[in-house]
Amino acid sequence: MTAADTTQAIVRSTDLRRWFGTGEATVKALDGVTIGFAPGEFTAIVGPSGSGKSTLMHCLAGLDRPTSGEVIIDGQQLTGLKDAALTKLRRERLGFIFQSFNLLPVLSARENIELPLRLGRSDPDQAWIDELLQATGLTNRASHRPAELSGGQQQRVAIARALVTRPAVVFADEPTGNLDSHSSQEILDLLRHSVDTYGQTLVMVTHDPRAAARADRLVALADGKVVHDGPAPDDVDAMLDLMKEIGR
Question: For the whole model, what pTM was predicted?
Answer without folding.
Answer: 0.92
